[in-house]
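Quick start: read one record
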Amino acid sequence: MSHRTLLGLALSIGLAIVFGARTTRATLLVHSPAVDRAARGGGVIVGRIESTQAAWSGARIVTRSIVTTEKVLVGTFSPRYEIVTPGGTVDGIGMRVLGGAELQRGTRAVLFLSREASANGSGHVLDLADGALVIEHGADGVDRVQDAGRTRTVEQLAAELAR
């Protein structure tokens, strides 16, 4: 190797060490069992998302969803309330939280709700997307959800939470 090649290699390694050695931060989402989520929150319901409206909240976008309660699995809730989730689209500008709950108008979901949702009718879901399990209605007429990679019926989930 020539002297010039070695000098270039040493300079590249030095710059990589100086500028490449930075502290990084990340969020790690650990899936918690449904029973634990229910115990930490204000309740669990089967609900239908009636409407969604994204708006600016300071420097970020949030989506406010009106949810109608179909069935209470844990706790007590009013028939309708507002769920606030991070992200959405306003005037062509979109914000998204990776792993966040994205409630879609017209869908049904099992919602693990915060304590403030049960107290004043407005709050958020727990554990990002793990707190909003979209219900799929099967051809066999059975409602099912995906929870941490596991498929089960809504009735199985309700029985687990009732124990």
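The radius of gyration is 22 Å.
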